[in-house]
Amino acid sequence: MVFSSFSFLFLFLTALLALYYVQPARWRGGRNLVLLLFSLFFYLCGGPKYLLLMLASILINYLSGLLVEGGRKSALVLSMGANLALLGYFKYAGFLMENLQALGLPVEIPSIALPVGISFFTFQGMSYVIDVYRGDAKADRSILGVALYISLFPQLVAGPIVRYTTVAHDLRHRRETFQDFYAGAIRFCFGLAKKMLLANNLGMLADEAFSAAGLTASAAWLGALGYTGQIYFDFSGYSDMAIGLGWMFGFRFEENFHYPYLSRSITEFWRRWHMSLSGWFRDYVYIPLGGSRCGLGKQIRNVLVVWMLTGIWHGAAWNFFLWGLYFALLLLGERFVWKNLLNRSPQALRHLYAMVLIVLGWVLFRCTSLAAVGQYLGAMAGLSEGPAGQSLYFVKQYGFWLLAGTAASLPVKDWLAERLPERTKEWAVPVTALLLLGLSFLQLISSTFNPFIYYRF
């Protein structure tokens, strides 16, 4: 089940809101139980056997939280091993066997379907146990509390990655207000529009370009820009919907994006993009390895480890490993090689530098093989040929969406919010949200099934 579907909007969400709010506000346990049952059903829609995996993850992390409290390191090691074993089997076993087979070893490649959102809920479970071990949180004595934290449907399958310390208070003591519900509904409508109107239309440009037999250089760049917009609006749109749904039920999730395409360096980009994942690797991998408080060699090692892990976290394929290594080298270059030159450069040049490197990075991410990466980058460099008028066709078909995406990636909404009179905003914001909701419904009616890109991670 996806947020951008009639079954979610008109059946699941409608039934949940009705049953949730019919419970008295003072009966927090009743509302939590309704939310937990609907969250488990939400995951059940992905397949009954994957619900068993979710329940296993809940049980492992609940028991681990009780065992590691007080600093029991052996229990922490066992917990991390169990979580990583589940993730490793479902996500990486097939990839490992493929590579062993490529080396000539007589192994069979298992057919293992990837459970939706396993990377997200596994990381959430691990962060809960680590925080309890460190003493940053108390172990939850109620398995229902841990179950709701790990399975909470808004951010279950595509983030943001929510820390237990962020929502521990909300699990038992949150207050739902009309103001938060209203703001959450508005946020959800804007997020849905990002997905249905911008991501899906820019995705059609990307699909055409990346599947073309031949491309001119300009067409290849247009296709790469299409994917650059698609992945941003797809993922940030989901995050907006998740955060909005959280507000509707009294939860305050942390922001996951902050206009990343305004960045003037790769370092700044990763402070603005998928902030919950960057923060997770910083706090649970980079800093424990020593962070920036050690010698040059270890600093380089730490960055390489974090970014190679970040790459393969996104997918079991060599292009994701290469993508992680690519950004690791750029971040190391900005820190140790061309930092001063970059800081002295004009802001416009720094922004161009960052965007070109970001777009190239998304090509690594989008291509399904290393051969495809080489072919597409060659096309961007003008080393291939495409049909005459190919770029003009792309502009005519998708130029409007490229312009709309460019505007939506800038803080235009924030700029208007600061300058519009309060009385104007009172009607302009809900009217805009309803208009976007109507347009999204029209797009939904005419579209086929289109899950979010990050569902497969």
Give a written overview of the molecule:
With 457 residues, this protein is mostly helical. It folds into 2 domains: 169 residues, no CATH class; 272 residues, no CATH class. Helix 9 crosses helix 16, helix 9 packs parallel to helix 17 and helix 11 crosses helix 12. The two termini are 16 Å apart. The relative contact order is 0.11. The mean pLDDT is 92.
Strand and helix layout:
Blueprint: H1 6-21, H2 28-44, H3 48-68, H4 73-102, H5 118-134, H6 143-151, H7 164-173, H8 178-211, H9 217-248, H10 266-272, H11 275-286, H12 296-314, H13 318-336, H14 339-344, H15 347-366, H16 370-380, H17 390-408, H18 412-419, H19 422-446
Helix pairs in contact: 1-2, 2-3, 2-6, 3-4, 3-5, 3-6, 4-5, 8-9, 8-17, 8-19, 9-15, 9-16, 9-17, 11-12, 12-13, 13-15, 15-16
Low-confidence stretches: none
Mean pLDDT: 92
CA gyration radius, whole angstroms = 23 Å
What is the N-to-C order of secondary-structure elements (H for helix, E for strand)? HHHHHHHHHHHHHHHHHHH
Helix content: over 70%
Class per helix and strand makeup: mainly alpha
Task: Tell the overall outline.
Answer: globular
| Biggest pleated-sheet summary | none
Give the termini distance in whole angstroms: 16 Å
Number of spatially distinct domains:
2
Strand content is: under 5%
Q: What's the helix count? A: 19
- Please give the number of β-strands: 0
